[in-house]
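Reading a protein record of the kind used here takes little practice once its layout is understood. The fold follows as a row of integers, each naming the local backbone shape at the matching residue. With these conventions in mind, the following record can be read line by line:

_____
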Amino acid sequence: MKAITEELLRYELRNSEPDVYIVPDGAILTPAAKEYLQQKKIKYQMKSNFHDQVHPGQGGQKKTESTGAPAPQEQRAPAAEKTETVAVLRPKYTEHETGAFFYEKPEHMTQLYGNELVNKDDPRIVFRGKLDSVQSLIVLAQAVIYENGCQSLVDDLNDILRHLRELMRCDVLGEDVPEMTTIGLTHAELREHSHDPMKFYKIKQMLLPDYSMGINYAYLNRIRTQIRETELSACTAFREGRKYKRGDIIEELNRLSSALHIMMCKYLAGDYTGGGN
């Protein structure tokens, strides 16, 4: 059960003073927090009992003093009833793990899904940062390789970039990763080609990079290693005990690193046209 302290309240309400503070279900206010709300003349209410409007002063039928029976209709005062409406400021964000409310997004937090917030160093946000970083590296590599006149290699890198952007979209929206071919190969074919490049490309498996192999090859190797780092970050982000809840994302990243290994083999085999260093 989450305890909402006076310190947390002061932070949440630092720029606003609502008429009613909504306490998330499963959370409690500490005595100091209750006292703080009383000092600020702010009512508090559990989320499950929350209403957009409060209408005070509306009672039932008036009772007569002698019998307790409802007063005759003609004896009621003709004055119009007044209805007072109390405006309630709705919180904009909730904390993903606890459901706590925030009226403004704290600087140390960011949106995970919709209006749900997590800390910026949350493993899932770190993973998304890795995805973003490897995409930026691919665009940089494409710019350099394009200047070197190797359009077919730029095109294959564009396919890798398309997959990474699809992974980002599926993660943010909570969708399954669709079945896709990469550089024209299925997942099974990527695995087979990567494990036996001699059979398919007459190249020894995973030759250690050397500066003499050229800038294009160096970029391919750098992208491969960064995809590996992104895969490890995904394993950390999606691990729940001994299970992983987004195995589709982890598998896709594994196959993308295999695709980069294959592209390196194809480059050494002279399969990419142009291919200037």
Q: What stands out?
A: The chain is about 45% helix and 10% strand.
